[in-house]
Amino acid sequence: MTYNRKRLGLIAGSSVLMLAGTMAVLFGSSSGPQDEKEIDTVLREVLAAPDPFVVIDHYSTELRERYENNPLDAVRQADRGIVTHIENIVITGDLANAEVTIEWNDGYEATDIFFLRREDGRWRYLH
């Protein structure tokens, strides 16, 4: 069986596209400094807001619906501190997490992991 250059080019190109698609599915979509900057901004604004409804557009669909249907849940979440560090941002496809250190009003400092999801092209706070 003889292959011409055009046919070999099509086969090679198709193979590369299939490999790229498989890699995107396995390892998530590409991310970079812009994603990390957006994640940092979302976390700082959400965690510093005195009232979750001020930053409700940063919340995931589930959290927005929960707070809109039960405002008391939002009030319980309103105890906020000052974000002192955001480190180790890990992005896997449309999910991300980051280690966030918060200094609470009583001077207590704690580090916890917070999660985000990309919805409609924007990073949204999950929990």
Helix content: 40-55%
Which class of secondary structure composition applies to the elements?
alpha+beta
How many helices? The count is 4
| Radius of gyration computed on alpha carbons | 21 Å
Instruction: Identify the strand order in the major beta sheet.
Output: 1-2-3-4
List low-pLDDT spans. 5-30
Question: How would you describe this structure to a colleague?
Answer:
With 127 residues, this protein is of the alpha+beta class. The chain folds into 2 domains: 1-28; 31-125, Nuclear Transport Factor 2, Chain: A, CATH 3.10.450.100. It is 43% helix and 28% strand. The chain has 4 helices and 4 strands; from the N terminus they run ααααββββ. The protein has helices at residues 5-27, 33-48, 61-69, 71-76, and strands spanning 82-92, 95-103, 109-119, 122-125. The longest helix has 23 residues, at 5-27.
Please name the defining characteristics of this protein.
4 strands; 127 residues; flat; 2 domains; four-stranded antiparallel beta sheet
Describe what is shown at a glance.
This protein is an alpha+beta fold and 127 residues long. The protein contains four helices and four strands, in the order ααααββββ. The protein folds into two domains: 28 residues; 95 residues, Nuclear Transport Factor 2, Chain: A (Roll), CATH 3.10.450.
